[in-house]
Amino acid sequence: MAEKKGVALGEAINLVNLAGYADGAVVSRTVIDKPVGTVTAFSFDAGEGLSEHTAPYDAFVQVLDGEAEVNINGVAHTVAAGEIIIMPANIPHSLRAVQRFKMLLVMIRA
């Protein structure tokens, strides 16, 4: 099968294992990067996160492992493995790993 940025196209992959944990770090691995959108797997060590920012598109987050606090426009939401949250376009948001966690981030640029 063909390979794009280290991900085998047309092959089954385990999302949970796509981005491995690293002590004191955030790890990301691009799965799809197209003009219409991106799919990226992330892993966060406990206490790590992404500072408050905005994005011009809605961001779909699926938690694959662990637990995180996602802050959207000043409101904190706890999300855990198996749950999703959508961060709306142009609204400030941030996230922090309550414990080590992994997520899949999908952004559609439309």
From TrEMBL:
One Pfam family per UniProt: Cupin_2
Domain Cupin type-2: from-to ranges: 43-106
Q: What SUPFAM superfamilies does this protein map onto? A: RmlC-like cupins
User: Which InterPro entries does the UniProt record give?
Assistant: Cupin_2, RmlC-like_jellyroll, RmlC_Cupin_sf
CDD domains linked to this entry? cupin_HP0902-like
- This chain's protein is named Cupin domain-containing protein
